[in-house]
Automatic annotation (TrEMBL):
Name this protein carries in UniProt: TetR/AcrR family transcriptional regulator
Native organism: Niallia endozanthoxylica
UniProt keyword annotations, A-Z: Coiled coil, DNA-binding, Repressor
UniProt keyword DNA-binding, yes or no: yes
InterPro entries: Homeodomain-like_sf, HTH-type_Tx_Regulator, HTH_TetR
MF terms (GO), sorted A to Z: DNA binding
Highest taxon listed in the record's lineage: Bacteria
Residue ranges of the annotated DNA-binding region, renumbered to this chain: 24-43
Length: 274
């Protein structure tokens, strides 16, 4: 295991137990069995480590949701798949999800707040894309209200899932929430949130990465990976980005090869949206 990955995994466990502020770099290095010098070779500070962990966690969430929203072919099944995928990913990363949710309401770190808001905007845009795809112009007047309802359901039931130790069955939960959203979409007549109001509350989004930045990121990941189908697929996708030499069917297959690899999830997301 790479030292940087070891630090992130062990620190995530400590943060989940104690919180960000209560966990010191010395506790992290002792828990990892490394020196402080080894820590600072990977991260300049504890804040940089926290931001890297948030990136890692949110990349899993956003990438998985993006894939589902844009690949599920049956619109009637999309809401269910959306909820199931989101809650399943939260379960997979439950230790860090707990502290991430807690810290959102407590942090005074401006950079951390900006980071959380930028990912929140990505999530909102995916939800709006899903709403437009399922319902079209029929609910245009209430789509922002519906988006906030979906976000509220995610927040409420994630807390129940992570902090109440409730034996939730994800299949039933996802079916139930999909049904609730469908009822709201069909019968809501009075809107509250307008597009103008939403735009007033939004912070700047992630800047869209250029092709050159994506290629640089791909080269970095290629150098980190061992020989594998995923690495070979990444090399082919990089060459395609440079030369456009592959058919859409091949590109789709290569993206499918890399989308679940921990080094490649974000790249797959970026390429799908490039």
């Amino acid at each position: 295991m790479l030292k940087k990955q070891l630090i992130m995994e062990k620190a995530s466990e400590l943060f989940a137990q104690q919180g960000f502020e209560a966990t010191s770099i010395k506790q992290i290095t002792d828990y990892c069995g490394i020196s402080k010098g080894a820590f600072y070779l990977s991260f300049k500070s504890k804040d940089e480590l926290i931001l890297a962990l948030i990136d890692h966690f949110m990349i899993q969430i956003i990438s998985d949701i993006d894939y589902i929203v844009k690949s599920v072919t049956e619109d009637e099944n999309l809401l269910y798949q959306f909820f199931y995928t989101t809650f399943h990913t939260f379960q997979m990363y439950s230790d860090f999800a707990k502290i991430f949710i807690k810290e959102q309401s407590q942090t005074l770190n401006e950079e951390l707040i900006k980071k959380i808001h930028s990912y929140d905007l990505l999530l909102e845009n995916l939800i709006l894309y899903m709403i437009d795809r399922i319902y079209g112009d029929e609910i245009k007047h209430i789509k922002y209200d519906l988006m906030y309802c979906i976000k509220s359901f995610l927040s409420m039931y994630s807390n129940l899932l992570l902090f109440k130790n409730a034996p939730l069955e994800l299949n039933q939960l996802s079916q139930s929430l999909a049904e609730k959203i469908t009822i709201l979409a069909e019968y809501t007549t009075i809107s509250f949130l307008s597009e103008e109001l939403i735009q007033m509350t939004r912070q700047p989004m992630h800047e869209k990465m250029t092709k050159e930045q994506i290629i640089e990121l791909m080269e970095q990941k290629i150098n980190e990976m061992e020989e594998s189908i995923e690495k070979e697929s990444l090399v082919l996708l990089k060459n395609h980005l440079l030369e456009s030499n592959l058919s859409p069917a091949i590109v789709k297959g290569l993206l499918e090869n890399i989308r679940n690899h921990p080094h490649c999830k974000w790249i797959a997301y970026l390429l799908r949206n490039h």
